[in-house]
Amino acid sequence: MSFLPSSLDKECDRAARILKSFTGVSGTPTSAGKGKAKIPTTVIANAKGLAIFTGFRAGMWLSGAGGSGIVVARLPDGTWSPPSGFTVRSGGMGIVFGVDVYDCVCVLNTPAAVEAYTRPRLAIGSEVTAAAGPLNAKMDAVSDVKPVWTYTKSRGIWGGVTLDGTAISVRPDANAEFYGEPKISIERILRGDVPAAAPAAAAGKTKVVMWPAGAKKLTEVLKASEGKVADVSVMGALGDEPTAGDLGVVPDS
């Protein structure tokens, strides 16, 4: 098994499964936020952007981390932008012994928080303020909305898990491969100024634009997670299998 970054479509597939596991959605508005859901539907519906990733931490006294994921932004029409890929790196010192594999959803609550993810490198905690997000049961008591709310899930062995000091770096090569454009910028992606997917083979004289499988899954989970109707067949294909953060194991690349 490997926790190295994979293709952007595979990252989208992984992100879709992570978000589904955190929201408990199945594709209909009435399903959003039920069961063991951790992120309230209203949090996703009001978000300006989302960053979703799986990370891996290991160490003994000196700690280090790695991982990868995707970020999407809210467009002016209320839909979501295409995804942009990033890697995760961090290191630290402390009384640390063991390993930890975790899933994370960062809810970006302000335009500035989204803009921060367009930088080549971003440090969570120092460049953008992050705090643990509210759970379903605590949503009514929320009065202080931070620029970034974080939700993490892990069953690995770890002490003092925190995202402070975690560095997010853009993956220009993965973006270029996915969109078929060598120098595509993350700003254009998050503004929605690029095709959602590369054109498929021409059908007669008409080119049919289709989402790759993983990206399509992410699109539908995003809809369901904010209380909208999603494609139930796509949602059903995701199933309810545990994610890496549930198992405490390093995911396949």
UniProtKB/TrEMBL annotation:
Protein name listed in UniProt: Uu.00g033640.m01.CDS01
UniProt GO molecular function: phosphatidylinositol binding
Matching Pfam families: Ysc84
Residue ranges of domain Ysc84 actin-binding in the record: 90-224
Species annotation: Anthostomella pinea
